[in-house]
Write a structure and sequence with these properties.
The protein is α/β, with parallel strands linked by helices and 331 residues long. It has eleven helices and 15 strands. The longest helix is centred in the C-terminal third of the chain and has 20 residues, at 293-312. The two termini are 31 Å apart. The mean pLDDT is 96. The structure holds (2R,3S,4s,5R,6S)-2,3,4,5,6-pentahydroxycyclohexanone. (2R,3S,4s,5R,6S)-2,3,4,5,6-pentahydroxycyclohexanone is lined by residues 155, 170-171, 174, 219, 262.
């Protein structure tokens, strides 16, 4: 079976998803690429032999479109995901599912009303071999019960002022999701520290399972794209390796290069995520590791609490609603 896909959004991530789906995912065919800018849509569509368009709703409703990948600006995610649900089509929506928990709830309600798991959220780190290895190590009991999780999230540069609300709403949700995924517990409360406007953020989360999670977020780090993680347990720790594929020897030094952004660092994760999604569309069974609309809501609720914690300078409890049956995993 061929899964015929509409890619909505032809910016950095839309272009990357279209390239991956067209070239690295067996059984996937990109049939249309949509962007508000017609020339951008055309450039990406040409690269994968697809039609180009500027109307996302028309693309979602096309008879020859089986599934939809949403990679448009964050504030359009919910409306486009709702349109895909209304058309009865599976959708892989880039993170965040929506910047507001109200919009995430609307997606959850619409999906629950269909009785089918149609939505996957693009928290691709769940498919990263490093994080997957950490999870396996933890579940095998090699480090004992988890106590702490320390994370570093650094981007080369973002918009001025991004080390604040934008970093908490757009970058840190990856960390919120991976913490919930690795530790298998809900996030209960958050505090955020910052030593002055524009400085890095230190986020501290208490989990419902009694662990502490720290996240050092700096989206203006200048030196490279750098993501680190170390999980501490009662008997040992497991951490992500800094293992670049090559080592450069030159100018009297030996060293490794950093990627400029997340695409090379998480290339495996994006490919594995998109393959798992296409397989899920074929079989109708959501992949075990994939983030659901419920996981998308949980990440946005944490981001909202973190923004409040920063702005009000206090510890904020994170809302933890009870998941509908559709999102419970079989025991
Ligand atoms: C971006 O949207 C991502 O998803 C990256 O993984 C993250 O590191 C970056 O900060 C975000 O802006």
């Amino acid at each position: 079976m061929t899964v015929r896909i509409a890619v909505i959004g032809a910016g950095v991530m839309g272009a990357d998803h279209a390239r991956i789906l067209a070239g690295e995912v067996p059984g996937a065919q990109v049939v249309v690429v949509v962007d508000a800018a017609a020339d951008r849509a055309r450039a990406v569509a040409e690269g994968c032999g697809a039609d180009a368009g500027t109307d996302p709703l028309a693309a979602i409703r096309r008879g020859d479109v089986d599934a939809v990948l949403v990679a448009s600006p964050d504030d359009t995610h919910a409306a486009l995901t709702l349109a895909a649900i209304a058309a009865g089509k599976p959708v892989l929506c880039e993170k965040p599912l929506a910047p507001s928990s109200g919009d995430c709830r609307r997606v959850v309600e619409a999906e629950v009303a269909t009785g089918r798991r149609l939505v996957q959220v693009g928290f691709m780190r769940r498919f990263d071999p490093g994080y997957a290895g950490m999870k396996r190590t933890l579940e095998a009991g090699a480090v004992g019960a988890p106590l702490t999780l320390h994370n570093v999230h650094r981007n080369v540069s973002a918009a001025p002022g991004a080390n604040g609300r934008p970093a908490l709403a757009n970058s840190a949700p990856h960390e919120f999701d991976i913490a919930r995924f690795l530790l298998g517990t809900e996030l209960a409360a958050v505090s955020v520290h910052q030593a002055g406007a524009g400085r890095p953020l230190l986020v501290v989360i208490e989990t419902a399972g009694g662990q502490l999670v720290s996240i050092d977020v700096n989206v203006e780090a200048a030196y490279g794209y750098d993501v680190r993680g170390e999980l501490g347990g009662e008997m040992g720790t497991v951490e992500l390796n800094h293992a670049p594929a090559t080592r450069l020897n030159a100018g009297l030094r030996a060293g490794a290069a950093y990627a400029a952004d997340w695409r090379p660092r998480f290339a495996d994760a994006y490919r594995l995520q998109n393959r798992a999604w296409v397989r899920a569309v074929e079989t109708g069974l959501p992949p075990d590791a994939a983030a659901s609309a419920w996981d998308g809501l949980a990440a946005t609720l944490t981001a909202e609490a973190a923004v409040r914690a920063l702005e009000e300078g206090r510890r904020v409890e994170i809302e933890r609603p009870v998941p509908p049956d559709l999102y419970r995993r079989p025991a």
